[in-house]
Amino acid sequence: MEREKRLKCTAYHEAGHAVASYFMGRKFKKVVLQIDQSPPGYIEYTKRKKYTSYKQLEDDIFISLAGPAAESVFTGKMNWYRARFDLESARRLYGSCKYKEVYIFWTLHRAETFIRDNWRCVDALALELIRVDKLAYQKVRNIIYKSLFYWNASIPELRDARDLTISKNEA
What order do you get walking across the sheet with 28-33 strand by strand? Predict the structure, then answer.
């Protein structure tokens, strides 16, 4: 795989993780793209001491599969080799669940749907990540917000509601 293609695939992959993390409420320190090293990209999370709910566990599984989902939406096909570490992470999180492979593929399908529904956010984040190599959580949040805001600004009902919200916060 040529370097530029690998760079783009990795950027979309990490952007998928980051966008899913943001929407699931899972904060992280930064997302990094380092194409000439191993791993070629990663997100530095704050460590969870333990899961306090099944939802947190499900969210982490979803987030781990959102990366390969974003890459597959970008390229048009699933790269099972590049997804292997995220799939293994999902398997480890599911533990000894009897139907974990079924759950993993169901969650992967949900992740692909989520990525398609939030493609503007993933695309904006991946493009910025390619440009700068590293983004802190606050910057990721701003990129996601702007990509949602500018898209929503074209819909009159949402634009008017957003204007009211902004003016209240600025006052």
Answer: 41-45, 28-33, 134-136
